Amino acid sequence: MWPLTWLFGRFYIRSVIRPTWFWYCEGDSIITVDYRQTPFIIRRVRSLSHNLRQSEDILVGRDHVNIFLLPDANTKEVGEMIVRDAGGNLVTASSVTKEYLAQEGAGEFQFGLFERGFTSNDYKNSVVYVNSWANGGQRWEFVN
What are the residue boundaries of the structural domains of the chain, listed by start? Predict the structure, then answer.
């Protein structure tokens, strides 16, 4: 569980097992690398039904979130959304068709996927994807 105040700022996603490996947006794909990092923003998909201070709002595994790239300059509140493509790979929204994006849940992820749902192959520069079997992924953490 992470307080949302941590998640509304600029942060990087890093492997717990291989702490030098970070998520990086290269072209339209999210890959794991050890030489660069891309900052991301996590947002709750649906607002809570009651008012809560940001510091009291905690995400748990079943909460649905969107992942965004941090925008260039301060032109937008968030940058481009990260979605899963038909093969489960994490890609930018602009790399899939509008029809695919219109499908319910294309850009939604359960927050718990950061615990053991997202994975990449055991080598650098491999695409991050949603693992198709339970608890088959890697653990990822948020760092500033």
Answer: 2-136
Q: Give every residue of the chain whose pLDDT is below 70, as ranges.
A: 1-9, 53-57, 72-78, 122-123, 134-135
What is the H or E stretch that residue 91 is in? strand 90-92
d(Cα 59, Cα 10) in Å, to the nearest integer? 17
CATH architecture of 2-136: Trefoil (2.80)
Amino acid (1-letter code) at residue 56: E
Question: Ramachandran region of residue 4, left (φ > 0), alpha (ψ -120 to 50) or beta?
Answer: alpha
- For position 134, what pLDDT does the model report? 67
**Contact predicate 117/77, CB 8 Å:** no
Helices (H), the chain: 4-7, 98-102, 113-116
10-25 burial code (b ≥16 CB/10 A, e <16): ebbbbbeeeeebbbbb
116-139 burial: b if 16+ Cβ within 10 Å, else e:
bbbbbeeeeeebbbbbeeeeebbe
